[in-house]
Specification:
By secondary structure, the protein is an alpha/beta fold. It is built from nine helices and nine strands. The chain has a domain of 184 residues: Rossmann fold, CATH 3.40.50.300. The structure holds adenosine-5'-triphosphate.
Length: 276
């Protein structure tokens, strides 16, 4: 069964994201690249899951398939019980890229509100499962209350990324896909943004699938870390982050935190060695 043949009933927000036996082969006249092999993954609604693995192992491809931007070659994919294409049509998936994609001629507030304007049209079947949130409130939550009227070129890179995160949440999408959203930022800005993201996420509890190359970032943010093998990407193991949510940032560097970092690295190493 392919994504398009998944039943399109009412949105099932308890199911989250499910991938079963997903393969992805990129074929062109000159080459064939098997990017993913037998990927099985279940993400519960409201979970924060990070995909972690070596460069080129297929993390972004998994995200793009979940987003409906790329079709799996075989296997099954569902998002809240519907196909990714349908979830996307219902504006239930927000994509937050590495560098913010704000429109330069619009103010920060207008940029954050934009998704509301675009999404105001009822869905194809007349139902709306999303509850768009107040852009001014969200911009306040990411610390941009004083910059509502500013244009993107008047903001720093970190501020633009904060606006981009706020915009993602404003959409009211149940699923947020974040592809290395902090990788272009300096360490201090990254630390601050991670905390902001945790705060906003704990307020709104959306399902997040996050990609990072930083194991510390993964442990800090996630409920579970999915460790992938080198290409073709398979799931080598899943590490449950058992640290409490309330004071997670304060736990960085503690023996418990470090033990989880080591566990993720060990699973990664096993995946590398298995490929040799
Ligand atoms: N459109 C495409 N056409 C052909 N090959 C592709 C395409 N997109 C991705 N690939 C290949 O699929 C593999 C997985 O790529 P992907 O970008 O998903 O990896 P990644 O784990 O996100 O990498 P990185 O961590 O470096 O960003 C790579 O070998 C890549 O070259």
């Amino acid at each position: 069964m392919t994504a398009s043949s998944v039943a399109l009933g009412p949105l099932d927000t308890d199911t989250g994201v499910r991938l079963r036996g997903v393969e992805k082969v990129f074929r062109s006249r000159r080459s064939t690249v098997q990017a993913l092999s037998s990927v099985d993954l279940e993400i519960r609604s409201g979970e924060f899951v990070t995909l972690f693995g070596p460069s080129g192992c297929g993390k972004s491809t998994v995200l793009r398939i979940i987003a409906g931007l790329e079709r799996e070659t075989s296997g099954e994919v569902s998002v809240f019980g519907t196909s990714p294409a349908e979830a996307s049509k219902r504006k239930n998936i927000a994509w937050i890229p590495q560098s913010s994609a704000l429109l330069p001629w619009l103010s920060v507030k207008a940029n954050a509100s934009l998704s509301n304007v675009v999404n105001r049209r009822p869905d194809r079947n007349g139902t709306t499962s999303r509850t768009p949130l107040d852009p001014v409130q969200l911009l306040g939550e990411v610390g941009l209350s004083d910059f509502l009227g500013a244009k993107p070129n008047q903001l720093s890179g970190g501020m633009r990324q904060r606006a981009s995160i706020a915009r993602g949440f404003v959409q009211g999408a149940e699923l947020m896909l974040m592809d290395e959203p902090f990788s272009a930022l300096d360490e201090l800005t990254k630390d601050a943004l991670q905390l902001r993201l945790l705060e906003v996420w704990s307020q709104h509890r959306k399902t997040i699938v996050f990609v990072t190359h930083s194991v510390n970032e993964a442990v800090l943010l996630s409920d579970r870390i999915v460790v992938m093998t080198p290409r073709p990407g398979r799931i080598q193991g899943v590490v449950d982050i058992t640290l409490p949510r309330e004071n997670r940032p304060e736990l960085a560097g503690t023996p418990e935190f470090t033990a989880l970092v080591d566990e993720v690295k060990q699973v990664l190493r096993t995946g590398w060695e298995g490929e040799r």
